[in-house]
Amino acid sequence: MTHALDLLQRVWGYPNFRGDQHAIVDQVIGGGDAVVLMPTGGGKSLCYQVPALARPGTGVVISPLIALMHDQVDALDQLGVRAAYLNSTLDPERRREVEQAYLAGELDLLYLAPERLQATVPLLQRGKIALFAIDEAHCVSQWGHDFRPDYLQLGVLGELWPEVPRIALTATATLQTRSEIVERLGLHDAARFVSSFDRPNIQYRIVPKDRARDALLKFIKQEHAGDAGIVYCLSRKSVEQTAEYLRDRGIEALPYHAGLPAEVRAANQSRFLREDSIVMCATIAFGMGIDKPDVRFVAHLDLPKSVEGYYQETGRAGRDGEPSTAWLAYGLQDVVQLSRMIDQGEGDEFHKRQQRLHLDAMLALCETAGCRRQMLLAYFGEESAPCGNCDNCIQPPETWDGTVPAQKLLSTIVRLDRERGRSYGAGAVIDVLLGKRTDRVVQGRHDELTTFGIGNELDEAGWRSVARQLLAQRFMESVGEYGVLAVTALGAEVLAGRAPVTLRKDLERRAVRSTRRAATAAAVDELQPDQLARFEQLREWRREMAKAQGVPAYVVFNDSTLRELAVERPSTLGELAGISGVGRSKLEHYGDEVLEVLAGVG
């Protein structure tokens, strides 16, 4: 490992490997295969980049996103690593240049999109390959949230190049998905490295959906003013409306979804990566592989379809290890809408049953009165203690005996079905409980039911909370095209008085802050006045450098390196070389200018 450690220090400027990186790099350099599960921000890229430089030949990286390829190549170029990509954005001349560089052995790393693999195999066979890295390997799972059919062909790599080590990497995978990765990629003999899925710097927070955009605006302005963030929405229309809503209220928000012209998507993504305070409103089409380290929050205005998807999306916050927030607004209509999407979606009954299980797990996470992080990690097979840094740990929710209200609501569903001959959604059921004589109630003679008006102990929001939690706990279900309610076998036990129901109170929660969240700005706030002046001057210099080169600012130096420079204030190139994140190439390119900036600030 001496050579690998030397590469790490010389090229990347890091003193040591972290966690499992040392063992993974050793495995691949030695010619062995590896399956790596490591959380976002854990340093997966180094696990194949270092071996690619240490082994003879070119490391070939299969990556699903063009934007990620561009960012990785830009970052490697800053480090003096010879890297390139082959994808649909290249003109024929540039493609020939990259192919010739590969054949001449002049590339350390070559990035490919999975859909280009088949066409590129003849080229790859004519060159020397150091390793194959399959990034975002969970895309091979047909039951996963990011399935890519082109990933199914990647098993051929082991057949065509049995002597070349392969490393499959992902930031998220259930036990089922891990098995699929091994099976479909033919990695049965690979060493498996499973790091903790915990992202302790992320504070998980789930709030009842009530005027969700207003709540989002308040959250951003009170806790993340001026921060970069991502807001996920379920539909394209909601994406555009949310971006417009935020812009009208002084927040620089941009839309991103598959229905926008490609040039608009590219321009918006570029601004998000290169500017400091952009909020991207997007569908889940945005985000996988986004390498921006200083995303301070990820918000969901709609319920994710699975815990795995939720973990993957929230993991785009705080890649730099600094405190960040995962905020989700969740309501009854989310449950009804996702249930309807499953019922009406493609696939056989087995596939739909899998989707319902995913949704059930997501609902359980939303409704738990316990530690959210503990439950999230348990989903991935990892045991943990309560975290102290989720909303339920910081402000424990109250629970109450909801058996009688549950019986009232379930009884109303049954009576509407039996006595009026049809099923209804939650709105109609709640109107009956509250004794509202709406046109629908009068025309349907719902006011003649024995449950009419028996629910005045709760208001409409309270009943919607009860309905949402009964759905989450499977006492009833939403079925069919119109999302009508039906009592389940579990619900029948409640009606018979054989099963109690415990519900959590929905509170108008105060802003939940933790010592970790308060520490977001603390790393900068704790700088002495002279150190802060140097830090700000370095940030301005970095901004100019990045703009001149057309790369994101963090590609030049990340914030933690700038803070260390501001505190240590090196005055020679030798001292500068001792700063974490300053490798040989960056020392040569920026060393004199950095020293000049530091010398010019008191």
Describe the structure in your own words.
By secondary structure, the protein is of the alpha/beta class. The protein folds into four domains: 193 residues, Rossmann fold (3-Layer(aba) Sandwich); 188 residues, P-loop containing nucleotide triphosphate hydrolases (Rossmann fold, 3-Layer(aba) Sandwich); 106 residues, Orthogonal Bundle (Arc Repressor Mutant, subunit A); 80 residues, DNA polymerase, domain 1, CATH 1.10.150.80. It is built from 28 helices and 17 strands. The strands form four sheets. It has a seven-stranded parallel beta sheet with strand order 3-4-2-5-6-1-7, with helices on both faces. It has a six-stranded parallel beta sheet with strand order 8-13-12-9-11-10, sandwiched between helices. It has a two-stranded antiparallel sheet with strand order 14-17. The longest helix has 21 residues. The radius of gyration is 27 Å and the shape is globular. The two termini are 42 Å apart. About 1% of the residues have low confidence.
